[in-house]
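INTERNAL AUDIT FORM
Audit reference: QA-55
Scope: verify that the stored structure record matches its stored sequence.
Auditor: D.O.
Record contents follow.
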Amino acid sequence: MRKFNLLESAPKPNRKVEEGWRTEENRIIAKRYDREFFDGDRVNGYGGYYYDGRWRAVVKKLIGEYGLNSNSSVLDIGCAKGFLLFDLQDMIPGIKISGIDVSDYAIAKAMDGYANYLIKQGVPLEQAKIREQEAKDKILPFMIKASCDNLPYAENSFDVVLNINTAHNLPKDRCAKAIKEMIRVGKNPKHMFVQLDSYTTEEEKHRTEAWVITAETMMYTPEWIRFLEELGYDGDYYWTII
C-alpha cells in the first residue's frame, strides 16, 4: 500500500468544530443524503455542494499517477453530483466513466452549479445554462444508485477504482465488504484509492467525533492500515483528519 494525497489541491473546508454543535438529530438528517445534506444548512452536511472546478486538478493527478487515457475505465464510488466524472470525461475524451451513489437527490442534481461556474469564466448566462444541461445529460447515463458494499459491476471491470470519503459511512463489517468490492471490480490492485476518516491523537479523535455527521467507522491510522492489509487491499490510501 502507498500513502498518497490525491486531494492535495482541494480547497481546505471551513469547519466549525464545536462539541454539541452537531447533534444526533443532525446526523439522522444527514444520513438521508437528500437536499438537507448536500444543500441545506451546514450543520446538516455540506451547506451547499456545487461545481467549482476543484476536481480538474484531481484529474491531472489521476492521469499522472495511474496513466489514464482515452482507453481507460474509472469507477467513482460515492460520486455525489458527478463532478469528478464530468471532469474525467471532459479532460480525457473517450474515457469510460462509471459512478455510484446512494443518494437519489445527488444524482438528480448532477452538475449542479456548473452554469454559475461558467458564468464566472465569462460565459453568457443562457449559454451557461445550456452547457450545464448538456453536461448533466452527458454523465447521467453513467451514474447508478447503489451502495459501495454491493457494486453492480463484474470482476475486473475498471482500470482505476476510487472510494473517496465513502466507505467509512458504513458499519465496520459493511466497510470491509466495500473494500473487498473495490478489489473485486478493479483490474490492477495498485490502481485504487481510498480516503477515510481517521485520527492520530486523542485530540484529533475528539474533534472528529464532534464534527463527523455520516461516518460510522473511524479508527486511528495504524488500525486502518491493519484493517486494509487484512482485507488484501494493496492500493493507495489517505486520511481525512479533522
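Auditor finding: record pair retrieved intact. The domain at 2-11+54-240 is CATH 3.40.50.150 (Rossmann fold).
Action required: none
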